[in-house]
Amino acid sequence: MNETWIAVILCLVALVVTAVVYPFVLRFAKxxxxxxxxxxxxxxxxxxPVLGGTAVFIGFAVALGIAIMVFHLRFMGVALAAxxxxxxxxxxxxxxxxxxxxxxxxxxxxxxxxxxxxxxxVDDFHGMWGTHxxxxxxxxxxxIFTGVGIMNAVNMIDGVDGYCSGFGILSSxxxxxxxxxxxxxxxxxxxxxxxxxxLPFFMHNVFGKRTKMFLGDGxxxxxxxxxxxxxxxxxxxxxxxxxxxxxxxxxxxAFVLAVMCIPVADTxxxxxxxxxxxxxxxxxxxxxxxxxxxxxxxxxxxxxxxxLLLDLIIVALWFLSWKLGASYDLQLYLVxxxxxxxxxxxxxxxxxxxxQNNGEGSPLYKxxxxxxxxxxxxxxxxxxxxxxxxxxxxxx
Length: 396
Fold this sequence. Notes:
Shape: globular
Low-confidence stretches: none
Radius of gyration: 21 Å
Distance between the termini: 40 Å
Mean pLDDT: 89
């Protein structure tokens, strides 16, 4: 059988398994009161079960287990173990509220294990700044720092329905396309499995009422680990992407950052602002980009779509810069600039616009609020149809 079809089948396996186990995980969460309760900083108004990441992990693990048997790749087994440990860590954090320093230590140890056993890390810049392979003495701490940053950036965007899982689906599809182009079918399959496992959860999370669950830290840290694995594979030596960097001028680091741009830029902005105010960078507040869109009247779905569209625009602009012949470094700087504009620039600009006209908002701010009002489509026919599809006829 063609390897591409194997990848598609594995994606469908992950999708079906997640969809099948989802109701059982939901009932378990409700029975044992594994719920996220509303408070002043959270956007939901009622308790919501918080084991969505468990359903996703089961679907992912079953499909990846089959992939390991098909491709016989030791690395996939290591990746599954690392992802499983992040799921366990996050689920424990959901129940016991682990201190950040303890969580970071465990994350670092898991990443060190992934690097040591999986033999992959950020050890090749593929020509960026005129640099290719770098010493392991630099690569290992750099990779751990990068991985911890990615996992916690993904964890911190999990604030509105559909955003974190939607980002996971979008980024997995983008990485899978890149892996397919590089003829790395095994990693393309890995990425498609991630997307397939996340899709049923996304549908319930966005369109469900009785069947809604949140990812929880177990799910968001798991997605963060998956993104980290993709980044490590693309930024490692002897990667399938080396020819794109040397022959086609593709900025591998720029592509990776473009895919991760909005979560990373938003997290850096929020944490920096908290530190400058004398607080903890991990103290929760309502200063993320998704909070800004909610404040302007966008629904959760509207907010998620806007942020995912921003990510897609940045990836498209990076692609254009690559095809127009921009150097590796220029591609990277353009992505960084776009991230700063999309996160820092837009956030502070809209806050200033809100204060105009004695607090009533400028015409531009009011226009965004009108656009936000247009996203309230919960009573539309398509929405009701999708709601019936995911909720079913009986109470869970």
